[in-house]
Amino acid sequence: MKAKNDKKTKEFLEVSRKYEPSCMSWQAPVVWDHAQGAEIWDVDGNHYIDWTSGVLVANVGHAHPHLAEALGEQAKKLLNTYDFPTPERLNLARKIIEHTPSHLDKVFFVATGSEATDAALRIVKRYTKKFEVLAFWGGFHGRSFGPMSVAGIGGIKRNFGPLIPGGIFAPYPYCYRCPFEKAYPDCKYFCLDYLDRIVETESTGSLAGLIIEPYQGAAGFVFPPEGYLKKLEEWAKKRNVVFILDEVQSSFGRTGKMWALEHEGLEPDVLCLGKGMGSGVPIAAVVTRSEIISCLGPGEMSSTLGGNPLSCSGALAVFEIMEVENLIQKAAENGKYLHEKLLSLKDKYPVIGDIRGKGLVYGIEFVKDRKTKEPAPDLARNIVLKCVENGLMVGKLGIYGNVMRIAPPLVITPELIDLSVLILEKVLSEF
Ligand SMILES: Cc1ncc(COP(=O)(O)O)c(C=O)c1O
């Protein structure tokens, strides 16, 4: 591979060091310039295949012409009205209600995923007049105080306390590292039975709801075993615990279905959407039932940029693109193709402890030793850096920082999948 030109990159990174704080997430040192579909070019003209979608956002692909055109037209027409309705917001509201499970009939728009989960928590507390929320180890729901208080990752909350009271934490079914040292399916969902003991011990009798991701993103793309979420929903229903499903990351085709809830026919009381919804345009939403959200009176919840016409036109264009280009089916098919290729690497490279995922979202967990499963965060970091050097844009995450995050735009082609896996394999062979 020829040496990369990095003159402008270095200059811009110097500007970043000088003027930006270092609190943002770690990324390989690349300054993005432009992108198209599932490909990216940096400021020095170097080319990359995208396995990030910019943190699972650009689901319809970068710079999609239809999305760009919709945004351009809308920008010339109307950008913000605050809570005055617009055709764009109302058409999007109808679209979302028509496409989500039939028991959900109201949608409230906000600008970010954190705003959506924060709103969901407030709605549930008001509706139930209770304050405790069951949340899960490894859970991530955003960075503002509400979602942070139900985060199951310590680093996110460190030295920000005291947090909002009422968080009760239970193990998520991270089967590769089961805290009970059991194995699915022989465990018979032991962690679910354990929930009652946790609630009996920790709740003061004011349990309002639970919040959970269909798969855990920040924890390292951790997927629960089949059937777990449906059983959890039944558990919640039996105990009148309102079920909040945080699909900020998993929705809009990411797992090979429009909503991850479709895999098990879930019927959450509250559904949070974001990220891929605008495919780069800031928009998120809380979808719920009239009976629940009518606990709020006029003026009790609202957002300056929530449901602005620009973002709504963008989200409407995203729906159209997904339909016209059949992106959900493509995500399922190309995802299967990618998954098989990744699994074939597992046999060859013992540093790969686990590979898991669905549709177009996969995590590769790197370990020092397959038996002990000791996490290998430094190795993961070096592999990511080498991949990026070789033209594959990828990141890492996870409770232990040892999981490679693979989440390309849903428009990625089998040819680009072949090329990207070749790059990964070349890098792995060097370690
Ligand atoms: C599951 C989940 N919920 C909420 C959020 C917060 O979204 P945002 O960063 O848009 O506030 C994220 C972001 O990564 C997420 O993955």
Report on this model:
- Helix 3 runs antiparallel to helix 11 (309-324), helix 4 packs across helix 11 (309-324) and helix 12 (327-348) runs parallel beside helix 14.
- This protein is of the alpha/beta class and 431 residues long.
- The strands form 3 sheets. It has a 7-stranded mixed sheet with strand order 4-10-9-8-7-5-6, with helices on both faces. A 4-stranded mixed sheet has the order 1-2-3-13. It has a 4-stranded antiparallel sheet with strand order 11-12-15-14, with helices on one face.
- The protein has 14 helices and 15 strands.
- The chain has helices at 7-19, 53-56, 65-77, 87-99, 113-128, 145-149, 154-157, 190-202, 228-238, 290-293, 309-324, 327-348, 377-389, 414-430, and strands at residues 32-36, 39-42, 47-50, 106-110, 132-136, 167-170, 207-212, 242-247, 270-273, 284-288, 352-358, 361-366, 392-393, 395-397, 403-406.
- The protein binds pyridoxal-5'-phosphate.
- The site of pyridoxal-5'-phosphate (PLP) has 13 residues, from helix 5.
Question: Characteristics of this structure?
Answer:
15 strands; 431 residues; 14 helices; 4-stranded mixed sheet; 7-stranded mixed sheet; Aspartate Aminotransferase, domain 1; 38% helix; binds pyridoxal-5'-phosphate; Aspartate Aminotransferase, domain 2
Which ranges are low-confidence, i.e. pLDDT below 50, for 5 or more consecutive residues?
A: none
Named CATH architecture of the largest domain: 3-Layer(aba) Sandwich
| Residue fraction in strands | 15-25%
Shape: globular
The CATH homologous superfamily of the largest domain is named Type I PLP-dependent aspartate aminotransferase-like (Major domain)
* Adjacency order of strands in the biggest sheet: 4-10-9-8-7-5-6
